[in-house]
Prior knowledge:
- By secondary structure, the chain is mainly α.
- The protein has two domains: 3-117, no CATH class; 121-210.
- It is built from twelve helices and two strands; from the N terminus they run H-H-H-H-H-H-H-H-H-E-H-H-E-H.
- The protein has helices spanning 3-14, 23-34, 36-53, 59-63, 66-79, 85-100, 105-117, 120-130, 132-135, 150-157, 165-177, 202-210, and strands at 147-148, 190-191.
- Helix 2 crosses helix 3, helix 3 packs across helix 6 and helix 8 (120-130) packs across helix 11.
- The chain is globular and about 60 Å long.
- 23% of the residues are buried.
- The mean pLDDT is 83.
Amino acid sequence: MNEEDCKDIVIKTSLSGFNIVGPFFIALYEAIKSNELKKRFNEWSDLIEYRLSKLEMQMEDLSKNESFVTTIMQATNSAMKTTKKEKRLCLANAVTNSAKVQIDESILLIYLNLIDKYTELHLKILAFLDNPKKYYSNEKGPVCYVTTSISQILKKVYPEIMEKESLINLIIKDLHSDYLINTDNIYTMMTASGVFESRTTDLGKNFISFISDNKKS
């Protein structure tokens, strides 16, 4: 089986959920295959090949690593469904980290499913809530109030994000219902120092580590 055959299999797998048959589907699939999905696969394979070359691991060892095999198969499928650079980097980080650390398969699948369903905005807000102080600097201006809220700090860090308040509320609810953060309300008033405390759970912190570029690992 050559490289093009492998690419074709991955692309067909990513389209397997479509219940379309007949000439229209064939024409549509061929058009997609020869354009956007092929481009996405090439970009993804270049990214993964570069990452794996830095690991200095033998292909035979990687192929026997069940966590790695599961991750690269699902991550590749997820990468075919997005053009967002930040999300693809998270997927690539997951692949790299799965090669270095053994993870319980149940937890691994939870992590992979979360990456697949989350938007880039989910991941950005989760990272902020894990360490608000990291994203806040004096350039954003001092916290001038005795009491403030997480939403007000988030607005100073990402003013464009808080313009989509209803969407942000939905994202906070998602992160909380998935047990990644310990609050479902970012509007509660609290002390100025309190807003900079981490709001992620242990599961949230481990998930962030799994999708991060842990070069020191």
